[in-house]
UniProtKB/TrEMBL annotation:
The chain crosses the membrane at residues 366-386, 426-446. It comes from the Archaea. It holds the Pfam family Glycos_transf_2. It comes from Halolamina pelagica. Residues 108-271 form the Glycosyltransferase 2-like domain. This is Mycofactocin system glycosyltransferase. Keywords: Glycosyltransferase, Membrane, Transferase, Transmembrane, Transmembrane helix.
Length: 516
């Protein structure tokens, strides 16, 4: 089945269509003469005279379509599309999917549940408060024994728009993916929304998301933690379900790789064409990637918020993260995708290799290696600094020397954070094993050196996160959930590798990207 016409077009202010969505200037962006500057991260570019009024027509508060800007300024719409898309890619502009606020068709909300009656009570209460004109609730119960079915049946007596679909048996559940497919079959409307029993959609949920389906085929909203427990506070910083505060097109290799089914709305045609795989993990990833492969438009917006209840027990928290981690091997065995996201300069690898040679070696070889490593690092920093200074001089006064120095420091810290976080999440366990062996059979300095380096690597991201976000919990509690998160996830990653017989998701090329 080919995707509907709306999948390839977005409706704009004047009723025409465009592929570009809507844009506004980021609040960190300024224009000086014909130079546009973004402060975080520091990026600057010189515009031609024709482009300046197009950017000046955008404010930092109101989203506008390229079509409306083109009509206002007399420029060709495709030219405006291309300019805005390039500037959004470089973080000068913020993008969001186009929406038609009058597009509010009847919607079916599918909730899957198994033995989670207490959370389902809150979920149904939240759904009853939605600010949306016409919707039904389809609860798919997969063999619950805790009174879940009786709860839904009682609610259905008072509300004809609540329906119970009974699937599975207490000792033979059909699983989450299959239950979602049964929900699609039972839904009466052509727009279908998914959430989970442990979620609480906010009142504007559907009203925020469904209008995006006037131009897209799948749209997801933001998932935020419910409550103020230490687990919820940690999730407020590091949730694996929260795709962030900025809208984006879903891209398997990008910052928004998929949409969680805790907060997913789409056309029936998508879910019938690309059914959920009948399993309990990564079913949402498969649907999003399958929809993209089929030519559908899949977008994310931070509006349409659903609050998620997280498990407070660090053990349960780590187990859940382990389940997510195990799904990486499954996806790697089914999809030939690499999402390398951390930049590692070639010069850094060279310096590290030479430094290790200096530590392991002796005499002249060691001294020469260390000196050469320092020379390479100094030369690289000097060349980059000179190039940056020359660029800054061309962009003066829009970019000052202090701007350049501050940006350099922020970028170095960001790179160290990203590299440390990736190592912490995927490689701490094998490195720790290597360190333990070295402590016993290696030189006396090697084991302690590995332990020290590993401790710094693990601690750095947690320290940065706590400092930047200032979460409302103690350092100890945050550190506990941080370790439960990353080590639990990592155990799942290696367990998945054994179960699915692949290390594709652990290849360095799948995690890191060399840059000059």
């Amino acid at each position: 089945m080919s995707p509907p016409a709306a999948a390839s077009a977005e409706r704009t202010d004047d009723g025409t269509t465009s592929n570009a969505g809507e844009y506004r200037r980021r609040d960190t962006v300024s224009i000086a003469d014909n130079v546009v500057v973004s402060r975080q991260p520091l990026t600057a570019t010189r515009l031609n005279n024709a482009a300046v009024p197009l950017i000046e027509a955008l404010s930092t508060s109101e989203f506008r379509s390229p079509a409306s800007i083109a009509a206002e300024t007399g420029h060709d719409r495709e030219t405006v599309d291309r300019l805005f898309e390039r500037l959004a890619t470089r973080d000068f502009l913020e993008w969001r999917p186009a929406r038609d606020l009058q597009h509010r068709p009847p919607t079916s909300v599918v909730v899957t549940v198994r033995n989670d009656r207490e959370n389902l009570v809150h979920c149904l209460d939240a759904l009853a408060e939605l600010n949306y004109p016409d919707y039904e609730i389809v609860v798919v119960d997969d063999g619950s024994t805790d009174g879940t079915r009786e709860l839904v049946e009682d609610r259905a007596k008072d509300d004809s728009d609540i329906h119970l679909v009974r699937v599975g048996e207490p000792d033979d559940p059909i699983g989450i993916g299959a239950a979602r497919n049964r929900g699609v079959d039972a839904a009466h409307h052509d727009v279908i929304a998914f959430t989970d029993a442990d979620c609480r959609p906010r009142p504007p949920w559907l009203a925020d998301l469904v209008p995006c389906l006037a131009a897209a085929d799948l749209v997801g909203g933001r998932v935020r933690p419910a409550g103020k427990s230490a687990a919820s506070v940690y999730e407020g910083v590091n949730s694996s379900l929260d795709m962030g505060g900025y809208a984006a097109r879903v891209d398997p290799a990008g910052t928004t790789p998929y949409l969680p089914t805790a907060n997913l709305v789409g056309r029936r045609a998508v879910f019938e064409t690309v059914a959920f795989p009948e399993r309990n993990i990564a079913e949402d990833v498969d649907v999003c990637w399958g929809a993209l492969d089929a030519g559908y438009t899949v977008v994310y917006t931070p509006t349409g918020v659903v609050e998620h209840t997280y498990r407070d027990s660090p053990r349960e928290f780590a187990a859940r993260r382990g389940t997510y981690g195990a799904s990486e091997a499954l996806l790697a065995s089914e999809h030939d995708r690499e999402d390398s996201s951390v930049d590692v300069p070639v010069a850094v690898l060279l310096v590290l290799a030479l430094a290790v040679t200096g530590v392991v070696g002796t005499g002249t070889v060691a001294t020469g290696a260390v000196v050469f490593a320092g020379a390479v690092l100094g030369l690289t920093a000097g060349v980059r600094g000179w190039r940056g200074w020359r660029r800054a001089r061309r962009l003066t006064p829009a970019v000052s020397l202090s701007d350049l120095v501050e940006s350099w420091g922020r970028k170095r810290l960001s790179s160290a954070y990203a590299l440390s976080q990736e190592v912490t999440r995927y490689y701490v366990l094998p490195i720790a094993v290597l360190g333990g062996i070295s402590w016993v059979v290696g030189p006396s300095w090697l084991g302690p050196s590995i332990a020290t380096a590993l401790s710094v690597t693990v601690a750095l991201p947690a320290i940065v996160e706590y400092r930047v976000h200032d979460p409302e919990t103690s350092r100890t509690a945050y550190a506990g959930y941080y370790l439960a998160d990353h080590l639990g996830y990592q155990l799942g990653v290696y367990r998945g590798a054994l179960v699915h017989g692949t290390l594709a998701h652990l290849r360095p090329s799948a995690r890191f990207r060399l840059v000059s």
